[in-house]
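Fold this sequence, please.
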Amino acid sequence: MSLWDFLRDPIGFLTTWFYGVLAGWGVAPGVAQAIGFALGSFILATGAMLFVMLLIWFERKVIARIQDRIGPNRIGPWGLFQSVADMLKIFTKEYITPIGVDWLPYNLAPVLSVASVLVVWAVIPFSITFYGADLNVGLLFVIAIASMGELAIVMAGWGSNNKYALLGAFRAVGQMISYATPMVVALLVPVMMAGSLSLNEIVQRQTVWYILVSPVAALIFFIASIAEVGRSPFDLVEAESELVSGFNVEYSGLKFGMFYVGEFLHAFTAALLFTTLFLGGWRGPGAEQIPILGFIYYVVKTGIVYFLTVLIRGSLPRFRMDQMMDLNWKLLTPLSLAVLLVTALTNKLLEGLALGWRVVVLILLNGLVLWVVNGLLQRYERRRVRREVTSVRRPVARPQQGGAE
């Protein structure tokens, strides 16, 4: 093995070297594999936790520019070490456990909040050789594990023995579980196109990015993933101005910090999944021959998607609860079902046609679906305005004044 092998694929190089060292020490192959999995899990989890500090700094600086502020700029160059100072503060703050909490769900919720995100990273293919496990039901695994994050919020609200926290948990049930419906339906489109639930297979079969094949499904997944994270404009789960921080109001110190870490990791993981499912993942020129190039492509694509989520968070105001539910059940869910039906019929009817022609037909049909939906929305809005104008112009009946007889 040469220096070029290391530069071309550092992860594969180090993995081969590590297993070679263990074999030289006489370690059995099964034991060596178990040690490798344990060490890889530790490195990936630790790296993800430390990466959150960079995400916090990046998000603060971007939102500061959006809102015409400076952002962190005192501690370290460009304020880079501000997140380190915040982390040290979180570690030294006092733990306060209110009287009457349900001990097990109260203390287990912060752990589940972070673990539900870190476990997802185990099946994400960062390059052709850099992934934890290649499951043939990888996408189903992601959906199942992601639900642990919702369970953590419910456990935190219930276990805190606080009405504000419980109301925040109930909102989580209404919001996050509701938006899981259009998100899962939209996920069926790349599964149908690739013919597999494996994330590796979905990436490798994206000779044409699925965002081009089905832009409507990509848009639905993008919106629903923001709502699943519970960030602005869908932050009704937390709603500081209404619920005093919502489900985590009774947490302090590192337990509160774990919810904070879980939120940022969840947002970045949503960007990772969007890149994997709709932007070709690590695919790019030379990515198969030079795996480190594929990792760079993956990071760049994910960074662009994450920047868009931060841009939305810093720009849009919070929805009302009824507006958020209307968007989900009256627009996104029926639209996702329509796109799924159109994609399934097109794939079946044009099965023998070349891939390029199928892509063209799917793009045209997606445009047609958007045109129909836009017309229906405009018609609905005109009717709503007409009803409001009619109700304003309608004369108000005044009570009759009886005279003295």
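The longest helix spans residues 355-393. The chain has one domain: 93-378.
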